[in-house]
Amino acid sequence: MTQLIYDLTLEEIANLLKDWKEPAYRAKQIWQGVYQHLYESPDEFSNLPISLRKKLAEEFTFTPFQVRTYLDSADGFTRKTLFELPDGNLIEAVLMRYGDPADNPQIKTAAPYSKNLRGARKRRTLCISTQAGCAMGCVFCATGQMGFKRHLSSGEIIAQVLYYARILKEANELVTNIVLMGMGEPFHNYDNTMTAIDRLNDQDGFNFGARRFTISTVGLVPQIRRFADEKRQVNLAISLHAADDDERLAIMPVNKRYKIEDIIEACKYYVEQTGRRVTFEWALINGVNDTPQVAKKLASRLKGLLCHVNAIPLNPTAGYAGRATNHERAILFKESLEQAGIPCTIRMRRGIDIQAGCGQLAGGSLSA
Ligand code: SAH
Ligand code: SF4
What we know:
The protein is α/β, with parallel strands linked by helices. The chain has helices spanning 10-19, 25-35, 50-59, 142-146, 154-170, 190-201, 221-229, 245-251, 260-274, 292-302, 327-339, 360-367; strands at residues 3-4, 60-61, 66-72, 78-84, 90-98, 123-127, 131-133, 148-151, 177-180, 213-217, 235-239, 278-284, 307-313, 344-346.
């Protein structure tokens, strides 16, 4: 069995090379080839002797999945790719382009964030998966409707990023943000997710700043606390979607285990530990969680917490009868929250025409 090269640390590669009786500096060359030059085949390592390239090809996999299909949104700004893993499982990852002149002027462009991105005005956000399927069963979610298949390895998470980074590189562009909001619950696959982030963060490699990642979780309390203790600079988003335990339980089975109050307490702890603001995700479902009354209740629960609410109209899915809120109701919800002192952003739905909602493409394909 060959190993996926992105599953290895630099040290592990160095140890292998030692076994192969190669000079130590070769490990760094391989690392830089993979994470800086974005080579995806041993043939591209022109600085390595042919014999070593051959060995790399024998021992390692560079492409852990096949592209099963991809879809571009009608406006051309969003691409969603469905990958097939060797065991037949499907995962998806989305590229969202923001900040182009023709794009929606309401969307702010990102500030340059690091030396090697100085001057970059365009936001290039990747939404990647951490699991095939998901065990959490949120009723409105296409991935939840599909059930849990398996965890992704750190290398399989990384490979999604490198896939798009290569596409962007051809257009002389860079990935600027990575959100772990594709298929799966990142905190259910905690170690592999953090390992992937750390590896992409490596300054001698992909050098992607921790603050440019956002993890979204369904609200697994012990993991939120662990994340807080680790004092990571990664942004944290919590999928709340309801201000009342019974209402949350009706759409999110995980609420049986972790109550809203426990989640908010864990978020308070996170803010204390890190000084960072928490984001609450809110899928606006018509008549279910989009009323001013719900907004007021939510505001009273979040009072005093350094946070803001990211609301997005529900993306309708085959397995759930709920409908998206309309524009007027969304604005009213936002205003009610803000009047009560909680900042709120209404996010644009992106790539709706390409089923870019979480798990929608893989779910559709599985049932086809
Ligand atoms: N499992 C994690 C991350 C993946 S889901 C989590 O739940 O947070 C990413 C976001 O998409 C979450 O906020 C989730 O609640 C939301 N989401 C899932 N299905 C959706 C839908 N049909 N419409 C709108 N948002 C949805
Ligand atoms: Fe899983 Fe997140 Fe979908 Fe819930 S919303 S089923 S946690 S992927």
